[in-house]
Design brief:
- This protein is of the alpha+beta class.
- Helices cover 38% and strands 35% of the residues.
- Strands 1-2-4-3 form a four-stranded antiparallel beta sheet, with helices on one face.
- Helix 1 (21-28) crosses helix 2 (30-47).
- It is elongated.
- It starts with a strand and ends with a strand.
- 6% of the residues are buried.
Length: 68
C-alpha cells in the first residue's frame, strides 16, 4: 500500500506499508522478516535521490519526504 500527500510548497510526504507482511513472519520467522525489512529499506534508499529522505517508521511501515 502506498499513499502520498502534498504538503507545503514542493514538499511531499509518502507512506509505504507492506501488505501481508505478517505472513512472512508467521511462515518464516522473525529473523527472516527482519532481513526482508532490511532489504526493503536498502532498496528504498537506493531508488531515492538526494532530494528524498527515507526511513522506517515501525514494523512494516516506511515514510519518505521530498526536500523540494
Amino acid at each position: 500500500m502506498f499513499h502520498i500527500n502534498k504538503t507545503v510548497k514542493n514538499h511531499y510526504f509518502g507512506f509505504i506499508d507492506l501488505d501481508y507482511f505478517k505472513i512472512v513472519n508467521d511462515t518464516f520467522g522473525h529473523k527472516v522478516g527482519d532481513e526482508v525489512l532490511a532489504r526493503v529499506g536498502r532498496a528504498l534508499i537506493e531508488i531515492a535521490d538526494d532530494t528524498v529522505i527515507m526511513y522506517r517508521k515501525s514494523g512494516d511501515e516506511f515514510i519518505f519526504m521530498t526536500l523540494g
